[in-house]
Specification:
Layout: E1 3-7, H1 12-23, E2 27-32, E3 47-50, H2 56-65, E4 70-73, H3 80-85, H4 87-107, E5 112-118, H5 141-159, E6 164-170, E7 172-174, H6 192-200, E8 207-210, E9 222-223, E10 225-227, H7 228-243, E11 249-253, E12 259-260, H8 261-272, E13 278-281, E14 290-291, H9 296-302, H10 311-324
Parallel strand pairs: 1-2, 1-4, 2-3, 4-5, 5-6, 6-11, 7-10, 8-13, 9-14
Antiparallel strand pairs: 9-12
Helix pairs in contact: 1-7, 2-4, 4-5, 6-8, 6-10, 8-10
Length: 330
């Protein structure tokens, strides 16, 4: 059993990964400022330490007290429109704080680092599906800050051979723990499936479809949706890969096929049994028509085999979790 530090482990993806790590037998310490995460999402035996990434003295003390063998780094800001409106927040939180965290890892001899990155680093790729070798051309501050953090990780590993890493580039994460223990509780979440579930429950007047004239079969954007539990399993496998001496690398996390916005709407309507209102709205700036992964590398390197590749199952788990939340989010 190893002791793992999970930053942002009270958030959506972090909490599911923390649960998966605990179930795999690891000792987990979560470090989270609870700005978007929830303390109750950290399920024992995982331990929660409340603190901000910018509090380097607090982090330094935590690393000095605990003998961590790896860091899984989820803490960050993730809303694309907000990154355009407030880029400095994103550069501070996503790039500066990540750089400081990596520096502390090197100082304390923590040899393994797993980073939560994003398909946004690809921007608007010309060829679909995208591989890890697809050119990285992010079109917003969110994607740029994540790509810059990837560079910091790679350059640090080149300078410190004992420092190894896995960078996971997520596509569209959705769904909730199949047993209903945790789910997406982020305030003001913008993820399509969660928003659709809120519309089905009457917590939103309608669901807006942004753009119906894309060069896709039904005119709406296509995305690769991955169940959060399968993504959590990818993190556990990544840790095992590094612990076994596997090489550092970058890996796409998606299923390799996509669904349109209209198809997602219909899946949530089937899951909920509610024909909620849908409003067609103009395109948003910077939305690529399609973004679908090629996950061959993580499958072949780590033997990752997803268990929840079913859009109806994803929609049902998301709706069931949303229904459990007592109050609508504001």
């Amino acid at each position: 059993m190893s002791k793992i530090l999970v930053t942002g482990g009270a958030g959506y993806i972090g909490s599911h990964t923390t649960l998966a790590l605990s179930e795999a037998g690891h000792e987990v310490v979560v470090y989270d400022n609870l700005s978007t995460g929830r303390a109750e999402a950290v399920i024992p035996p995982a331990r929660l330490v409340v603190g901000d990434l910018a509090e380097t003295d607090r982090l330094n003390g935590l690393m000095r007290r605990e003998n961590f063998s790896a860091i899984l780094h989820f803490a960050g800001s993730i809303v694309v429109p907000e990154s355009v409106e407030n880029p400095l927040k994103y550069y501070r939180n996503n790039t500066n704080n990540t750089t400081e965290l990596i520096g502390l890892a090197v100082r304390h001899g923590i040899p393994r680092f797993i980073f939560s990155s994003t398909a946004a680093v690809y921007g608007m790729p010309e060829v679909i599906p995208v591989t890890e070798d697809t050119p990285t051309q992010p079109i917003n501050p969110y994607g740029r800050t994540k790509l810059m953090s990837e560079w910091v990780i790679e350059d640090t590993a080149a300078a410190h051979p004992q420092f190894s890493y896995v960078i996971l580039r997520y596509f569209n994460v959705a769904g909730a723990d199949p047993e209903g223990r945790i789910g997406q509780s982020t305030p003001n979440a913008t993820h399509l499936i969660k928003v659709a579930a809120q519309a089905a429950l009457g917590r939103r007047e309608a669901l807006h479809i942004f753009g119906t004239d894309y060069d896709t079969p039904d005119g709406t954007c296509i995305r690769d949706y991955i169940h959060v539990t399968d993504l959590a399993a990818a993190h556990v496998l990544s840790l095992g890969h590094l612990e076994a001496g596997g090489p550092s690398g970058i890996f796409n996390c998606g299923y390799g096929h996509g669904y349109s916005v209209r198809e997602i709407v219909e899946a949530v309507k089937r899951a909920s049994g509610v024909d909620f209102s849908v409003v067609e709205s103009p395109r948003r700036a910077g939305d690529p028509p399609a973004l679908v992964s090629n996950p061959a590398r993580i499958r072949s390197t780590m033997g990752w085999q997803p268990s929840h590749d079913d859009i109806d199952g994803i929609a049902l788990s998301a709706y069931a979790w949303e229904k459990r939340l007592e109050l609508p989010e504001t």
